[in-house]
Amino acid sequence: MKKQWIITGLLIALDQLIKAVIWNLAKDKHITLIPGILRFEPFQNTNLNWFASMANVVMPVFIMVIMQLLIAAGIVLFCKYQRYKSAKVNLWLDMGFCLALAGVSCSFIDVVFWGGSLDYIGLLDWFIFDMKDVFLNAGWISLVLWFYSKDYKASENNSITFKSWISNRCK
């Protein structure tokens, strides 16, 4: 899993580098890339997550940080458990791990250091998002595809439940 941790770190660095460049050089610029479809429109989203943004509610930072840490731990445990169960390395599982963990980590950094997400990609008239959101969505999709893969269905250690696996790891 060493390679996955490195890839995850690189994705986090890419997201944060893009945000730093935009913040320092282009935070007041608005550029239409494809009229009516795609635009560059930096926006500091202080609602802290997608659900809060849609409801226009400001979520407490403490609650968001706790949620992010729990989700990150869940992603790591889930992927380690799935790797234990499967004899083969699977692209969907590895991509899901890297992308989902990078997205949650970027969200954590956004909340703690930026005071919210610097969103900059406008899609249609729906919403503005950033690279972190792309990572999160692609990560969840990859993990769902893992469940439909032949490798998941052929997992060798199907008799090992998550509860028994975690209790063996904690001994």
UniProtKB/TrEMBL annotation:
The answer to keyword Ribonucleoprotein applying to this record is no
Q: What would be one Pfam family of this protein? A: Peptidase_A8
The cellular component terms of Gene Ontology attached to this UniProt record, alphabetical and capped at eight, are: membrane
Keyword vocabulary terms for this entry: Membrane, Transmembrane, Transmembrane helix
What span is annotated as the signal peptide, if there is one?
none
Give TM regions.
57-79, 91-114, 126-148
**One of this protein's GO BP terms?**
proteolysis
Return one GO MF term: aspartic-type endopeptidase activity
This protein is called what? Signal peptidase II
Organism, by scientific name, is Anaerocolumna jejuensis DSM 15929
